[in-house]
Amino acid sequence: MNLKQYITRRAIYLIITLFAIILFNFFLFRIMPGDPAKVLVPKTNDLNLIHAIRMKFHLDQPLLTQFYYYLIQVFTGDLGISSGVWKYQPINRGIVAPAINTVVLVGLGTVVAVWAGVTLGRFAAWRRGKPADTMGMAFALTFYSMPTFLFALVILMIFGGQLKWFPLSHSFGELPFVSNPPSYADMNILQKIVSRLYHLVLPLTAFTIEMLAEYALILRNSLTDVLTEDYIVTARAKGLSSKQILHEHAMPNAMLPVVTVVAISVGWVLGGDIMVELVFSYDGLGLLTWEAVLKRDYCVLQALFLLMAIAVLISNLVADIIYMYLDPRVQV
């Protein structure tokens, strides 16, 4: 099976799975108790208004008809109207800024965590049983087992509260180390970039350390098993250097479980790490999800769940393609 046939087959599976997710996402919010029309206008007893809302959103139609209109909305990019978070504003308009913030935070954090975690795991596995292995795994196990919110709170209190080196909340704002700092709206492009990077340091640190610990543990265990395989012994007997054995023979097979975990984690790019965003009040999709739950904004939650599911599907498709390059047996 060549690459084109493999991608085509996986794409067909993706479309079928996407349709099943859309179907589940539609019925999940329809089986919840309560009247969706009254959720949009919770403080009114105007029956005419409630009836008009039902007609506007096709809530007076049979369930299959409602699903038909929902499919049209999904494939035309219409995510609906917010009833609580943005007060009757289109979700498409309000979700852009949080999505960008989360993509920057989790996307950049994932890239750094993968690189650092793979480097640490490879370093420890190649020195199995030595002090370097013990120290590296002690570091990884400590942060892997530590609750995310606890580590985030610690660095927030130390570097944001006590030392006041970094801000306590939000994804942008004034720059305290600049004399007479302008407001964010009055900053030029360079100043806005610096402002966002400055507010990104602490949440990015918390997210990255949490993820790299997991990647390091997985790669170290996987690579340790691979290094005991017969073909590694054969490679040594053929006189290959340690560098060739590690990079050309051991690492491609050891990376397979890491790719799987990374594919699942990348799906969080649209969901964000909710705990990190809550602790730092970072204006991303994770914080938005929490606000939508508190305000019972079902339309926003429905849109967020759909976006998260699509992100997971796409990341797994990319992982399947990477598998073909790491393991030729996948192509059979």
- Shape descriptor reads globular
Largest sheet: none
The helix-strand sequence is HHHHHHHHHHHHHH
And the CATH topology of the domain at 94-296? MetI-like fold
What value does the average pLDDT take?
A: 80
Question: Tally of extended strands?
Answer: 0
The CATH architecture term of the domain at 94-296 is Orthogonal Bundle
Tally of separate helices? 14
Please give the share of residues in helix. Answer: over 70%
Secondary structure category: mainly alpha
Task: State the separation between the terminal residues, measured CA to CA.
Answer: 6 Å
The CATH C-level class name of the domain at 94-296: Mainly Alpha
Unreliable stretches covering 5 or more consecutive residues: none
The fourth-level CATH homologous superfamily of the domain at 94-296 is MetI-like
Structural Rg: 24 Å
Beta percentage is under 5%
